[in-house]
Amino acid sequence: MAIVVNLDVMLAIRKMSSTELAERIGITPANLSILKTGKARAVRFSTLDAICKALDCQPGDILEFREEDPR
Predict the structure, then answer these.
(1) Do 7 and 35 meet the contact criterion of CB atoms below 8 Å apart?
(2) pLDDT tens across 16-68, in order?
(3) How many angstroms from the chain centroid is the CA of residue 54?
(4) Which site from 19, 23, 29, 68 is most exposed, i.e. has the minimal number of CB atoms within 10 Å?
(5) Interatomic CA distance for residues 3 and 42, integer angstroms
(6) What long-range pairs does 30-37 form, CB within 8 A, spacing at least 24?
């Protein structure tokens, strides 16, 4: 997939655990894990908004587009 989720990077920068973020934004740790690993098929804007507020960051700090290797 060409969209890369850099949530682990932001969590490390903010020195916050996944469990703490999940509690702050009101989702289960399992659903946050699915998002962190890039296995999510979609993300709600309300969830992205809550993540950005909790981590004091921009959506572009979390989501990145990378060209896929055509091979």
Answers:
(1) yes
(2) 999 999 999 999 999 999 999 989 999 999 999 999 999 999 999 999 998 87
(3) 11
(4) 68
(5) 11
(6) 32/7, 35/5, 35/7, 36/5, 36/7, 36/8, 37/5
